[in-house]
Amino acid sequence: MLLYNVTVSVDQRLAADWLNWMKAEHIPDVMATGMFTMHRICRLVQPQPQPEEGVTFAIQYYCDSQEQLNRYFSEFAPALQQAHAAKFGQHTAAFRTVLEIV
């Protein structure tokens, strides 16, 4: 099983709106692709970020195979990432990692 982790730092002034949008729209859209079996949202608490650094979240999506993840990256991720950028663009910074669950 693989874990696709998206870590996002969000401008503190928009963090509540961003989180609501993620829960109501973006994550349901990602899960509707059928490529992931479950997800989880975490908020960074340590090390404690400075207020000017924003609020940092990690969104974790669980996937059964590399093939499914590759399909997600090629067929679905570009449009979903574009929707995120269009809505919150310069107010967020993200990086993505893939981990194997052992």
What does this structure look like?
- There is one protein chain.
- The protein is built from two helices and four strands.
- The chain has 102 residues and is an alpha+beta fold.
- It has one domain.
- The protein has a four-stranded antiparallel sheet with strand order 2-3-1-4, with helices on one face.
- Helix 1 runs antiparallel to helix 2.
- The longest helix has 23 residues.
- It is globular and about 40 Å long.
- The chain starts with a strand and ends with a strand.
- The mean pLDDT is 95.
Encode the helix/strand succession as letters.
Answer: EHEEHE
Q: What would you call the shape?
A: globular
| Tally of helical segments | 2
Q: Whole-Å distance between the termini?
A: 8 Å
Radius of gyration: 14 Å
Number of separate structural domains: 1
Mean pLDDT: 95
Strand order of the largest sheet: 2-3-1-4
DSSP strand (E) fraction?
25-35%
**Poorly predicted residue ranges:** none
Give the fraction of residues assigned to helices: 25-40%
Structural class: alpha+beta
How many DSSP E strands?
4
Largest sheet features: 4 strands, antiparallel
Key words describing this protein structure:
2 helices; alpha+beta; 4-stranded antiparallel beta sheet
Brief overview:
With 102 residues, the chain is α+β, with helices and mostly antiparallel strands. It is built from 2 helices and 4 strands; from the N terminus they run E-H-E-E-H-E. Helix content is 39%, strand content 32%.
